[in-house]
Design goal:
heterodimer, A: 388 residues, alpha/beta, VC0802-like, Rossmann fold, nine-stranded mixed beta sheet, six-stranded mixed beta sheet, 15 strands, B: 384 residues, Aspartate Aminotransferase, domain 2, 2 domains, seven-stranded mixed beta sheet, four-stranded antiparallel beta sheet, 41% helix, THUMP_dom (chain A), RNA-binding (chain A), ATP binding (chain A)
């Protein structure tokens, strides 16, 4: 009887001919998070991925694997040969281990016979093993509707017996869906937006805008901390840090006060668009949620959207703040996002920002600015920070 | 680098670093150990205590080592009130104390103590009349900050003592000397101060070490119990390296502080005059007469957020402090500047410059130049 970790795949299983590509990317991502813990082997067997490693490392591995997108469940299992006696022995061992860990009264056996050559059919095997467990553990009863624990039996090339299913995030393996550039601020929304798109397989880079010395270096440290938390899910992040102060000063000098925010947003989009183009990135990602602030009205969004040709993904667009906060808590960015940080940038915040800007007006306002050279200067002076 | 944040902390003197390094590598024994190495450490502590006692002109048995100013304030106030609470429950302090005093008082108010917070005038001085009117039979403690850490006002400690002793001789007098120690005139014995708190890192000594003077006629009970170090008042293995560094910092200061202090007075006057001529729309929140600390000057720049100016200066490697910080949740405003009657805008635009013997006239010239340029740049945006 050997212990291995099994990993169940979600949507990947539906991928038909591309399935191998997705599986290989997933295995690559899994290797990356567990390589420093150490493992013997990773192999595929009829729809699942298995890891051979030292059992005492399982909890640590599960904890890391949970954050790898594309996997739905992780289970520590007993691996045995497809032999009736061995299956019985392992089933009793698995139940005994479960009882040692927690109080259970009821159970249900759930057999999945992928190898149709195995002589005993699933319901029959479940019934046999169920009876065996009842004989060996007098205190237990069967409950087919709502059992305290399942005993899972997978009959494949080998047989696998397990009781635990630790939930992962699902989604698609990182890197199977191109690259996205996340506009990352210090707030609650943008890290969540990055997380959600990465979960769909998008590889994430980030751009952060600041107004130093009107904002502080501590505020930027906070953004780095958020990127670090995000990198637990998405791996290494290239973060571009762009100083927007000269642009803001110029807008402040030459444009209407109430257009400050919308004009700045357009610059942010344009600069992000340039970076994406240069780096071969396929889309921008923002944390915009319809109606959340003045610049996120549908009119505001359409004006900022017109600043670039590249697609802009807005995964939070239809979510309420409370829903966004729930995800932020779950991925552990919330506590960092709400830390108070010095933010003297409010000197640039208009008292009554326009909520229904018109593209003609905004384009006209931009005519007062040397947009091209402002963007070039900002990009020339930007810093690249690698977050690992 | 031009360091003008010497009220926050100071750079260690070379002599201090050398002696500390030796103690960490060679003479590191536990002073309580019976062997020779332990005894050597015990002697070093003794000599550090003597340097401090010499400087303060008190008996060496009246000096206790603590972890810093905050702990010294806490031991003084809490041990005194623990001892005297049967006699009364009234305490007097001021509105411009450090949080390590104010937060004890806030806590006491919830435990049925009565606390009187004396107000201050626009220069940051308490009114002796108000003090006189508030001392009662059940007043057990007056706790007053000698030099204010934000604006540098120096309270007339000697006169305060006269009033306390005349009206209620049983009232004890604690002075928070953390910003004043070694920087302004002090006579613990003549001024009949019962407890005096001071700290190592404000005088070019190490962080994590402080001192407490308790007049020998008082015996105070500890707040923390253990192996009875520091004559039972503060248990815990002594911070040997810190104590040795502190002792050395005081020894050197004893030789040089008169010259250094005269030099710093000149710096402050020069700086104030220069700023006044170079930069318009400013307000000195520190009085420029001889009554304020030579080490501190607090200035409000109109139409400027102090914190933005701080970052402009930091960008040129000039380090200062603001007394209020912008935050994503609004602005945290200084209770001291509020107490001297400043408006919100003046509070938000304030910067504190704190000098040391290390600063030069050239440093200040450069600082004023950068200040002038930065203030102009910021005002272009904010005054639009």
């Amino acid at each position: 009887m050997e212990k291995v970790l099994s990993v169940s795949l979600g949507e990947i299983a539906l991928k038909g001919l591309n399935r191998k590509y997705f599986e290989d990317q997933l295995i690559k991502n899994m290797r990356r998070v567990i390589k420093d813990i150490g493992f013997e082997k990773i192999y595929k067997e009829q729809g699942k991925i298995y890891i051979e490693a030292e059992e005492h490392n399982f909890p640590k591995m599960i904890n890391r694997l949970k954050k790898v997108f594309g996997l739905v469940y992780i289970s520590p299992c007993i691996r045995i040969e497809k032999d009736e006696e061995q299956i019985k022995e392992a089933s009793i061992a698995a139940i005994r281990e479960k009882i040692d860990k927690e109080k259970i009264n009821t159970f249900k056996v759930d057999t999945n016979r992928a190898d149709k050559n195995f002589p005993i059919k699933s319901p029959e095997l479940s019934r046999q093993i169920g009876g065996l467990i009842l004989q060996n553990f007098k205190e237990l009863e069967v409950d087919v509707h709502n059992p305290d624990t399942f005993l899972y039996i997978d009959i494949k090339q080998n047989a696998y017996i397990y009781t635990e299913k630790v939930k992962g995030y699902g989604g698609l393996p990182l890197g199977t869906n191109g690259k996205g550039l996340l506009l990352l601020s210090g707030g609650i929304d943008s890290p969540v937006a990055g997380f959600l798109m990465a979960k769909r397989g998008l590889e994430i880079s980030a751009v952060h805008y600041h107004s130093y010395p009107f904002t502080s270096e501590r505020a930027e440290e906070k953004v780095k901390d958020l990127a670090r938390i995000l990198s637990r899910y998405v791996g290494r992040i290239k973060m571009y840090s762009v100083n927007l102060l000269d642009i803001q000063k110029e807008i402040n000098n030459k444009c209407k006060e109430n257009e400050m925010t919308i004009l700045s947003r357009r610059f942010m989009m344009k600069i992000a668009g340039r970076i994406a183009e240069k780096e071969g990135i396929n889309a921008l990602i923002t944390g915009e949620s319809l109606g959340q602030v003045a610049s996120q009205t549908v009119e505001g969004i359409s004006v900022t959207n017109r600043a670039v040709d590249i697609p802009v993904l807005r995964p939070l667009i239809g979510l309420d703040k409370v829903d966004i906060i729930d995800i932020a808590r779950d991925i552990e960015t919330f506590e960092t996002s709400i830390l108070p940080f010095e933010d003297c940038c409010t000197v640039f915040l208009p008292k009554h920002p326009v909520t229904k800007p018109k593209i003609e007006d905004i384009l006209k306002s931009e005519e007062a600015l040397d947009v091209e050279s402002l963007i070039n200067n900002a990009i020339e002076n930007m810093e690249l920070i690698i977050i690992e | 680098m031009i360091y003008l944040d010497n009220c926050a902390t100071t750079r260690l003197r070379k002599e201090v670093v050398e002696i500390m390094q030796r103690s960490m590598i060679e003479d590191f024994g536990n002073p309580s150990s019976l062997h020779r190495l332990g005894m050597k450490s015990e002697q070093k502590i003794k000599s550090a205590r003597e340097h401090i006692a010499n400087f303060l002109n008190v008996d060496k048995n009246e000096i206790y080592f603590t972890s810093g100013g905050t702990e010294s304030n806490n031991i003084s106030i809490q041990s005194i009130t623990n001892k005297l609470k049967k006699r009364g429950n009234h305490i007097i302090t001021t509105k411009i104390e450090h949080p390590s005093v104010l937060n004890i008082m806030k806590n006491y108010e919830q435990q049925d103590f009565n606390v009187t917070y004396l107000s201050v005038d626009t220069q940051g001085y308490i009114s002796l009349e108000e003090l006189k009117d508030n001392i009662r039979n059940d007043t057990i403690l007056v706790s007053i900050m000698h030099v204010n850490n934000e604006i540098g006002s120096v309270q007339p400690v000697s006169k305060i003592k006269d009033i306390i002793k005349k009206i209620n001789p049983n009232t004890l007098f604690h002075v928070d000397g953390i910003q004043g120690f070694g920087k302004v005139e002090l006579d613990l014995k003549k001024w009949e101060i019962d407890c005096y708190s001071f700290s190592g890192h404000k005088i070019h000594g190490p962080k994590g070490i402080g001192g407490l003077f308790i007049d020998k006629k008082h015996s105070l009970l500890p707040l923390v119990f253990g192996g009875n170090q520091e004559r039972g008042l503060r248990s815990g293995t002594e911070n040997l390296t810190g104590i040795i560094g502190f002792g050395e910092a005081v020894r050197v200061m004893n030789e040089s502080h008169k010259i250094e202090s005269n030099y710093v007075i000149e710096l402050k006057e020069y700086f104030a005059r220069k700023i006044e001529t170079e930069i318009p729309y400013i307000k000195f929140n520190t009085s420029l007469d001889k009554n304020s600390s030579p080490y501190i000057i607090n200035i409000s720049f109109k139409h400027v957020r102090g914190e933005i100016l701080l970052h402009y200066l930091e960008n040129k490697e000039i380090y200062v402090s603001t007394t209020s910080a912008c935050s994503s949740k609004g602005t945290e405003k200084s209770h001291v500047l509020k107490s001297i009657g400043l408006g919100n805008e003046e509070i938000e635009g304030s910067i504190r410059f704190c000098f040391s013997y290390e600063n030069t006239i050239e440093d200040l010239d450069y600082t004023v130049k950068v200040l002038k340029e930065s203030v102009e740049d910021i005002r272009q945006i904010t005054m639009r």
